[in-house]
Specification:
Blueprint: H1 2-29, E1 35-43, E2 48-53, E3 56-63, E4 76-81, E5 96-103, E6 106-112, E7 119-125, E8 132-138, E9 143-152, E10 155-164, H2 166-169, E11 174-180, E12 187-188, E13 194-195, E14 201-209, E15 212-221, E16 225-233, E17 240-241, H3 264-272, E18 277-286, E19 289-297, E20 303-310, H4 314-320
Antiparallel strand pairs: 1-20, 2-3, 3-4, 5-6, 6-7, 7-8, 9-10, 10-11, 11-12, 11-13, 14-15, 15-16, 16-17, 18-19, 19-20
Length: 323
């Protein structure tokens, strides 16, 4: 009788061990993208885009009129050469909430005429010094904010964050889409192409891979707190949310000092700041890694720019969010 009991116990233990091993293996496969936060590099710098142009990594920046080093009295755009820290000349005076997209030997930048404006302007340059501009979108009655651009199947797509018209938006903010064949002339897609009219969705970062549009966006959570989530869609209408969300959420690592040039006063402001937010994520691949910039802070004006990295390609990052 004891032998039978021992045999049964041994068999049960073996089954438990096999299940544990399989569960552990599955857990490893569904871990998702591991992002390493590197820390804060600036204050009151929020909307940025990492972009590779002529084999160099740049950080496009929307410099607000109240930025601590802005003495011009107006907002503008610029690029920072990440390796050297050197800034390009200011451009697009008075424009807001921009994003950048490099296509071959030309850099394109898209700016909104004002927070909640109705016009998007496209700027283009081959040297980041001399710029040409023209209207990209004019949507009277709309309230437009952040944008993001990617290429997909021979065309270009732009994600547009909006809070008006209310009858289309639903719960602000909502992300709509426009398309172009040349990055200069744009048309709004059907307003059925949207995400999401049922909840707060802002700050889009749009990419395309394997027949899917992937989009990182900001979602308001109870508290309130604000997290960056990722979704994907084949048609910009029906969306699948990653079960591994959030991609980024506020944590103590946000306040790590990554820029040794920050002054004692700036470091004090960082250490004492309220942190309930990881927003305005944007990313690109450079030298086999995924470079990430994001904003943290109180989501009410006291905001900080931080950097992070994923040790793998952008394709790997996107795919790992949907195992």
């Amino acid at each position: 009788m004891k032998k039978l009991v021992n045999l049964a116990c041994g068999t049960l233990a073996l089954v438990v061990l096999v299940v544990a091993l399989r569960t552990g293996s599955a857990a490893e496969k569904t871990k998702g993208p591991t992002i390493k936060k590197l820390g804060t590099i600036d204050l009151l710098m929020v909307e940025t885009t990492p972009v590779v142009f002529k084999d160099r990594l740049y950080r496009f920046e929307y410099v607000r009129d109240n930025y601590h080093a802005n003495k011009t009295g107006a907002s503008y755009f610029r690029f920072i050469d990440v390796a050297t820290g050197v800034a390009t000349p200011a451009s697009a005076k008075g424009q807001h909430l921009g994003c950048a997209y490099a296509d071959g030997d030309t850099m394109y930048v898209f700016g909104t005429d004002k927070w909640g404006g109705s016009r998007i302007t496209v700027f283009q340059s081959k040297d980041l010094k001399e710029w040409q501009s023209q209207p990209a979108l004019n949507l009277p009655g709309w309230g437009l904010y952040n944008t993001s651009v990617c290429r997909a199947n021979g065309r270009y797509l732009m994600a547009l964050e909006a809070d008006k018209p209310r009858e289309l938006v639903g719960i602000p903010f909502t992300i709509f889409f426009a398309e172009s064949k040349d990055l200069l002339n744009w048309n709004l897609l059907s307003t059925d192409c949207a995400y999401s009219k049922e909840k707060y969705t802002a700050c889009p970062a749009l990419r395309y891979l394997d027949g899917y549009f992937y989009m990182i966006y900001l979602e308001a959570r109870p508290g309130p707190t604000y997290e960056s989530h990722i979704v994907r869609s084949k048609d910009l209408k029906r969306w699948e949310s990653s079960r591994l969300n959030p991609v980024l959420a506020f944590s103590k690592e946000d306040k790590t000092i990554a820029n040794q040039k920050l002054t004692p006063e700036q470091r004090k402001a960082i250490s004492q700041a309220k942190d309930i937010n990881n927003s305005d994520v944007d990313l690109c691949e450079y030298q086999g890694k995924t470079v990430i910039y994001y904003s943290w802070g109180n989501q009410q004006g006291k905001e900080f720019l931080a950097e992070a990295v994923y040790e793998g390609t952008l394709a790997s990052f996107l795919r790992s969010a949907f195992p």
